[in-house]
Amino acid sequence: MRLLLIAYEFPPSPSPQSLRWTYLARELARQGHEVHVLTADLGGTTPGLPDLPDSVRVHRTWPGLLRGALAWHREYRQRNPRAPAPAPTPAADGDGVAPVAALRPPRNWKQRISEAVQAIAAWVHYPDIRGEWRGHGRRALRRLLAELRPDLLISSHEPPTTLELGLAVRGAGLPWVVDLGDPVLAPYTPPRWRARSLRLEQAVFRHAAHVIVTNPRALAQMQERHGTATPISVLTQGFDLAPALPQVGEGLFEPDRLELLYTGSLYAFRRIDVLLAALRCDPRVRLSIAAVTVPESILAAAREMPGQLRLLGFLPHRHALALQRRADVLVNIANDEPAQIPGKFYEYLGSGRPILHLSDTQDLVAERIASLRRGWVCANDEADIAARLLQLAGARARGMLDDGLSLDAGPVREHSWQSLGAQLSGLLAQVAARRRP
């Protein structure tokens, strides 16, 4: 089939939704589909993202005045760097990309100005500055529909702008599949946009031929909110079965420590401060955090206990995957919203390393870890975490850390991008068949 995907978040964006559709587009192309992607031109490049086949055609369009200026600035900085590239580290490999870069400060004056401009734009554009793309994307979409005559249209949410573009061409009689991911109306939706978000979500369920969410609780939430008339399926986040980059991370972790690794962003609804306090229970325990920026409190904690808290800064995606496979224990922190599962959890499943999941509720991740024997679940409480870390440090010292766990890929293969791509291909074929005369 000829597929047209609307995806604002797409490389060079390193966001979870961008990674999701980079992998899915790759797998759909491998399944024999002709894949076209309509996205915003955000400028520059991001190292370490998955490679796309040449057969995937990406159509980039002007993102709007403010995002366009930021894209120009990003490309200018990449072409004219003011500082030399960081020296190679023990984690380096031979692909020419430095795997560990210096940690960016939380905000310099330029970032503060950029954040202020984007905050102002978020009062004008729905849902935020990314709404600037709406008009430019709509014109490009209508042009591509006339030129390509695709068999099926897909919207990748977030942002909701991609849903609005799909609704704008609903009269074309084209089957429309919505990869919803998180609900449009979510707990973090600003009050000024809540009514509009609910209306948009309702319109999606009236007009989409099929809706995709990433976990069963999100499915139940959407059916409770909008009924069962619209077909809806679960397609989780995933992990890549491809081997990790060789030699990445070699020498980064020490054999006489319990080495914990957290990769990903930190938010107010994903709290790591309790774990940082619990680290003091044993000097053998060290936590490495791979994140572009971290709050000031984490920078302060790293200064206070440099032997137990290490900030790796930005890691290209493929390097993060390689380090996940070398760490002793991977840390996952539950979101406050039980209908959300961090995409990193599925990467962790594919790493072959045990997971320490911190959660105050019996959420979906906790259930999966227990059923798969993939690690341990611990209350996000300092005393409970400290007790668990002492236990794990002792098991690590005795060479028994993985005892009793099942860490091979077989039981979780259904969450590989290769398997998910095949599932999606079959789902899209069913949707297209339903709409044929």
TrEMBL record:
Protein known as: Glycosyltransferase
Q: Which Gene3D superfamilies match?
A: Glycogen Phosphorylase B
Query: In this protein, which residues make up the domain named Glycosyltransferase subfamily 4-like N-terminal?
Result: 21-235
Q: Which PANTHER family match?
A: GLYCOSYLTRANSFERASE
Region Disordered, as annotated, extends over 79-100
Q: Which domain of life is it from?
A: Bacteria
Q: Name one GO molecular function term.
A: glycosyltransferase activity
Q: Where is the composition biased (Low complexity)?
A: 90-100
- For this protein, the Enzyme Commission number is 2.4.-.-
> What InterPro entries does the record tag this protein with?
Glyco_trans_4-like_N
> Can you name the source organism?
Luteimonas composti
EC main class here is: transferase
Q: Which UniProt keywords apply?
A: Glycosyltransferase, Transferase
